Amino acid sequence: MPKEFSYEIEEEIAVLSESAKGWTKELNLVSYGGAKAKFDIRDWAPEKEKMGKGVTLTEEEARALLEALQNYFSE
């Protein structure tokens, strides 16, 4: 029997862009299956009824990404 998929958006951090169809690419803190929330970047339908493929990052990974972006844009 397949496990039930569950998620909870614990904190909405930023909307990065919006498509013509109303989907938004967002950075949020999301808990999947009751686990500790991770940083999550993905597309969401207007009422959050559907989600696109995305990437999740631990706090350590998000800090490494932030540092890499800061280094990239300061050059």
| CATH arch. level architecture | Roll
- Report the count of strand segments: 4
End-to-end span in angstroms? 52 Å
Specify the helix fraction band. 10-25%
| Beta-strand fraction estimate | over 45%
Q: What average pLDDT do the residues reach?
A: 95
Low-confidence stretches: none
The side-by-side strand order for the widest beta sheet comes to 1-2-3-4
What fold name goes in the CATH topology slot? Transcriptional Co-activator pc4, Chain A
Radius of gyration: 14 Å
| H/E topology pattern | EEEEH
Shape: flat
Main sheet makeup: 4 strands, antiparallel
Oligomer: single chain
Q: What is the level 1 CATH name?
A: Mainly Beta
SS-based structural class?
alpha+beta
Q: How many domains, in number, for the residues?
A: 1
Structure description:
The chain is of the alpha+beta class and 75 residues long. It has one domain: Roll (Transcriptional Co-activator pc4, Chain A), CATH 2.30.31. Helix content is 21%, strand content 47%. It is built from 1 helix and 4 strands.
